[in-house]
Amino acid sequence: MDAARSGWGSGERGWSLAGRVTTAFVVGITGEGGVTLTEEPYGAQRRPLISLPMLAVDRSAPVDGRLAGLLRARFRDEFGCEAPELIPMKSGFGGGGLPGSRFFLAPLARRGRASSQSLHVVREVPLGEAREHLAQRQREGARVEPHVRQGLLLAEELFPRWARERLGRALGAIGGRHNS
Question: Which of 90, 94, 96, 129 is most buried, by the most CB atoms less than 10 A from its CB?
Answer without folding.
Answer: 96
